[in-house]
Design brief:
The chain is mainly α. Helices cover about 80% and strands about 0% of the residues. The chain has helices spanning about 10-25, 35-85. The longest helix is centred in the last third of the chain and has 53 residues, at about 35-85.
């Protein structure tokens, strides 16, 4: 696996630390700045694939919702038609 080394100024590190702390607080993690940078670089690398997966999941959810709605409409129609024939 390739390994990269980056240099951060003290000012850059001081600017990143509150972001890492905020992330850790929100996510319930205890990442170091280096781990946080690594995670976010990996997230950038998978972003296109994740966006495509999210799009596919939304389309599937919409299709499932449409199918459920169509079934509910059919059931309501059938019940209303049956109520016309009831004595």
């Amino acid at each position: 696996m390739p390994k990269f080394t980056i240099d951060l100024s003290d000012k850059a590190l001081a600017g990143l630390q509150p972001e890492v702390n905020r992330y850790n607080g929100n996510a319930g993690t205890a990442l170091t700045v280096a781990e946080w940078i690594d995670l976010h670089l990996q997230e950038i690398a998978i972003a296109p694939d994740l966006a495509a997966a999210i799009d596919q999941l939304r389309k599937q959810q919409e299709a499932d919702a449409n199918a459920a709605l169509a079934a509910a409409i059919t059931t309501a129609r059938d019940e209303l038609l049956a109520s016309l024939a009831a004595p």
